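ZP: hey, is the glycyl-adenosine-5'-phosphate complex queued? I don't see it on the tracker
AM: it wasn't, my bad. submitting now with these inputs:
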Amino acid sequence: MGNAQAISHTNVEISSKVPMDELVALCKRRGFIFPASEIYGGINGFWDFGPLGVLLKNNLRDRWWRDMVITPPIGPDGEPLQIVGVDTAIIQNPKTWEASGHIAGFSDPMVDCKETKLRYRADHVMVLLPHTSKMPPAPKVPSVAFVEGTPLQDIEKHIKKIAKKLGISISLKDFIGHQYREIEGSELNIAVHHDKLPLTQINKDKYTEIVAPDADVPGTLTEPRAFNLMFETQVGAVRDDSSKAYLRPETAQGIFLNYKNVVDNMRVRVPFGIAQVGKAFRNEVTPRNFIYRSREFEQMEMEWFCHPDEAKKWFEFWTEMRKSWWADVGVSSSNLQLRQHDKDELSHYAKAGVGTVDIEYRFPFTAPGFGELEGIAHRCDFDLTQHEKHSTKKMEYFDDSVQPPRRFLPHVIEPAAGLTRGVLAVLAEAYTVDASRPSQMYMKFKPSMAPVKAAILPLINKDGLPEIAQKLYYCMRTKFMTEYDAKSNIGKRYARHDEIGTPFCITVDTETPKDQAVTIRFRDTMAQERVALDRVEAFVAKALAE
Ligand code: GAP
């Protein structure tokens, strides 16, 4: 397959404490995430979750579901909010996507390279203009393009290749301003990010002077063209335009399609929410940065239906609520920021409202900058109006709790989070370098997020130890995700559990038959504590509740 998965080259850190290549390697080695279809060379933009990855993803998903649907937050008036869940079809009537604006408007600007035949998202291509003082008759120095997130050393290699091809003598320092010329290393990286210009801000006449990200000579980039991101499929035996359907590009529309069913049948009153977790598909032009931008991913979305006059209040409420939620699942708030969308980047549905705020995380490959983790959008009544128009079904809400009773189309505040992207944030946040350990690192998951909560380790496989360990394991496994691990020496077992982030290693040793106690080793401090066998379960339960 031509577009086989390239795991490393664009996935490396720019400057951050987390080495992205090592995180990707760990995810494979320890069964978190594998490239999809790997035995066939992969398929670009698709990933499989392995045994540990699916446990981690489900922990994050279940926590979201619990905090949204099972025990929704307490509202500003001190009363619990009302949110119900749905799980809707991935393929819906194609009229859905006409109404939602996705057929007309869900596209990215893309450019093709005529030399390499590669395609890029125009807004992801960055350009370095020459600042060189090389004087004529020196040959003209071109501008150099790279895909945002490309590691510095790869940009340097690209420039070297261009220099060789064009027979000129240039280096990265010819493309950054004079004020940076003396600096080195990660500061040079900051200089590049300061001086780069998005391709979208460059006049089309100047394209002839730009060398594309993977090309050798200037002038091979086409002008940007709109590229619809929805995957098409056919439904039924007949293969023509009448059977054309789409894989959903967002879970949100399944919620809007069921708004009327929920209002009519579920005894909900505005304001209320409908939540959904599920797969979404986008034929991204440049999937990259591991699972950050993939073509198949999962979203956790909630549509909050409220009176138009209250939309601003709820927008602020949900923005704060969602930001603190990410901190609750172990994403450090110092790596989170809120960013208001500029007018020109608002989605088609958010134009008329209070706007959109992104909750951004400092991913290893965006550091020192940030990348989107979740968007909170004010969608106004855009979707309900559109579905009312296209389906001719009335979507108005009748409110008889006020005098006189009133009819209105609710406005919608939408916290839309990426589950897949959330897993990446949790993984990056947990990765902790520690040279004092045999594993050189450990995964510092919040215990409630850790895929495996406790490991039961008999020190040796004799003298009655396995029997005691198994009895404990049979009891613990009914309460928490617990592993029984009797293979290899205890040091290697600790190292493996450090790598998968198990918060508690419980060792049954030669003292256990005598004192009916075990040693609990804490992942983060490596400290050990002797705990009575009959207190182990309560001990772990208490730590997980924190
Ligand atoms: N219903 C609104 C909506 O879909 P979005 O900002 O396009 O909004 C919401 O997507 C979230 O879904 C993003 O914040 C991001 O976390 C995640 N997401 C979007 N595209 C993605 C992709 N190609 N790969 C992984 N996650 C993605």
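AM: back. The pocket of glycyl-adenosine-5'-phosphate is lined by residues 250, 252, 282, 284, 293-294, 297, 299, 301, 372-375, 414, 416-418, 420-421 (CB under 6 Å).
ZP: great, adding it to the tracker
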